């Protein structure tokens, strides 16, 4: 039996008892996880469930978890703890915990020990087995678990329920082979596995004909897309094929690993009119010593060569990055090299994190004599520097016209906000009817976290 058969089985069971349960799914973490959550919602809807945003009225609650940092995990445990009260009020409530956290043994043990009211636990590899697990649980009413590792994750043909009609994430590959020494992702997501280009193109075609305006291609390292296919296709080639599809939409992608960004990729971005002129290029550290200890496989020179080439080809090119502060035994001198790189590159946005020790990774075994106080101090210093860098950078947009996809109301009444091709937050006076539309905006003023302008077209 495949997942369609189990979906039918559960649906018939609900129909027989004349019960249409309400399901609530919450995804933590990265866009890959959000995308998995959309598939879980799709399966629940196919099983005949209604979908709710209010967990207190739900009959099935699924928490789709993230393991990337300790505070992410603790937040999830806090949220699982809060569900105890709901289970006491409604003993028939079904609680599921899935995603990256249960792909670690010690987490499943903690759930079984301290959160006995959790009914179903499954990892990232078992997403297609969720209907089977639910079916088994409905029959036995016993704790049901599948956290086994597998070689691939079958997801083709799954229905997806998206919360947004004008923006969509499309996974192009799953897993990661890089084993950066601090990172848990390769352990909880397994090895790299690319989707077939025709499946990706078909999905995007469908989305665009449904009116989707922004396609975000997802992978932990999109630059290694296609290497394990029977007929290898490079990421640049995939981008060119997507760019050639008909329709009025723009293309983004995440994440690019600096070790694999080629000049060919930069040329492709420059040549393809639908690709946003922005790259999220995680630096992690500006110190070669730390980059080696992180197993990142590039040095600062290689990183800067990419940045300089991109800026040469596209002078207005926009860059954002991820930075880890306080890797084991990082010194202030190492950190100063990161600060210096942040100033030199001139990022429009950085996502910075204090290093978090992840059980089972290589870095967790490393000696670490850097104090938590120093790490926090440096972290604040980085935020301060980036604030000034962004404030200065954003001035270059004044007087320019940006293409903005509006996605929500701004805090100021009468204003709406959205993201430009460069991944900058743009605010403008306008009606909420424009949400979901792409507009040209002439920038009139800038701040350090957003720019403001007038809609001209
Ligand atoms: N595959 C992507 C990133 C995935 S995780 C890449 O290689 O860029 C997103 C970000 O979380 C990473 O870029 C890193 O900056 C941060 N991160 C990952 N593990 C971390 C850890 N143990 N402590 C702190 N930050 C971490
Ligand atoms: Fe983690 Fe490195 Fe893989 Fe990114 S490339 S997911 S940081 S191991
Ligand atoms: Fe978190 Fe898993 Fe994504 S650990 S960052 S949800 S791949």
Structure characteristics:
single chain; 457 residues; alpha/beta; Rossmann fold; pyruvate-formate lyase- activating enzyme; OB fold (Dihydrolipoamide Acetyltransferase, E2P); 3 domains; five-stranded mixed barrel; 13 helices; 19 strands; 21% strand; globular; binds S-adenosyl-L-homocysteine; binds iron/sulfur cluster; binds FE3-S4 cluster
Shape: globular
Biggest beta-sheet profile: 6 strands, parallel
- Trace the largest sheet across and list its strands: 2-1-3-4-5-6
Query: Mind telling me the CATH superfamily name of the largest domain?
Result: tm_1862 like domain
What is the level-2 CATH architecture name of the largest domain? Alpha-Beta Horseshoe
Helix content: 25-40%
Bound molecules: S-adenosyl-L-homocysteine, iron/sulfur cluster, FE3-S4 cluster
User: Total number of helical segments?
Assistant: 13
Radius of gyration: 23 Å
Say how many strands there are. 19
User: Could you state the oligomeric state of the chains shown?
Assistant: single chain
- Low-confidence stretches are none
CATH class of the largest domain: Alpha Beta
Q: Kindly estimate the percentage of residues that lie in beta strands according to DSSP.
A: 15-25%
Structural class, by secondary structure, is alpha/beta
CA(first)-CA(last) distance:
53 Å
Average pLDDT over all residues = 96
> How many domains in all?
3
Task: Predict the CATH topology of the largest domain.
Answer: pyruvate-formate lyase- activating enzyme
């Amino acid at each position: 039996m495949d997942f369609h058969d189990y979906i039918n089985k559960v649906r018939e069971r609900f129909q027989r008892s004349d019960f249409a349960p309400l399901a609530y799914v919450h995804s933590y973490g990265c866009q890959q996880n959000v995308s998995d959550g959309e598939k879980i919602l799709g399966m629940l809807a196919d099983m005949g469930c209604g979908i709710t945003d209010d967990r207190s009225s739900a009959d099935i609650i699924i928490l789709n978890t993230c393991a990337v940092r300790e505070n992410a995990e603790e937040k999830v445990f806090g949220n699982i703890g809060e569900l105890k009260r709901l289970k006491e009020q409604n003993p028939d409530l079904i609680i599921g915990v899935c995603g990256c956290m249960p792909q670690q043994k010690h987490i499943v043990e903690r759930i079984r020990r301290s959160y006995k009211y959790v009914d179903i636990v499954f990892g990232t590899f078992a997403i297609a087995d969720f209907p089977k697990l639910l079916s088994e649980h409905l029959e036995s009413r016993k704790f049901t678990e599948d956290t086994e590792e597998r070689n691939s994750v079958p997801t083709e043909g799954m229905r997806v329920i998206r919360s947004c009609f004008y923006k969509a994430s499309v996974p192009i590959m799953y897993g990661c082979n890089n084993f950066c020494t601090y990172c848990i992702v390769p352990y909880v997501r397994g090895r790299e596995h690319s989707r077939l280009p025709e499946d990706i193109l078909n999905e995007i075609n469908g989305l665009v004909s449904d009116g989707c305006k922004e396609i975000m291609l997802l992978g932990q390292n999109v630059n290694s897309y296609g290497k394990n296919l029977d007929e290898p296709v490079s990421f640049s080639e995939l981008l060119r094929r997507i760019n050639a599809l008909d329709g009025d939409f723009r293309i983004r992608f995440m994440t690019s690993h600096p070790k694999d960004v080629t000049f060919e990729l930069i040329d492709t971005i420059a040549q393809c009119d639908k690709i946003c002129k922005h790259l999220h290029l995680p630096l992690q550290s500006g110190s070669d010593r730390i980059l080696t200890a992180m197993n990142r496989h590039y040095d600062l020179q290689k990183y800067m060569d990419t940045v300089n080439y991109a800026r040469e080809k596209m002078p207005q090119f926009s860059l954002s990055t991820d930075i880890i502060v306080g890797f084991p035994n990082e010194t202030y001198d190492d950190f100063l090299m990161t600060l210096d790189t942040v100033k030199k590159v001139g990022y429009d946005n950085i996502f910075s994190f204090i290093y978090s020790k992840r059980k089972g990774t290589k870095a967790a075994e490393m000696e670490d004599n850097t104090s938590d106080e120093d790490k926090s101090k440096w972290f604040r210093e980085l935020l301060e520097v980036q604030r000034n860098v962004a404030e200065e950078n954003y001035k270059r947009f004044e007087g320019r016209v940006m293409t903005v996809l509006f996605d929500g109301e701004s805090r100021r009444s009468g204003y709406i906000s959205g993201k430009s091709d460069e991944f900058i937050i743009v605010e403008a006076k306008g009606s909420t009817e424009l949400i979901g539309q792409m507009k040209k905006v002439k920038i009139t003023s800038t701040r350090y976290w957003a720019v403001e302008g007038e809609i001209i077209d």
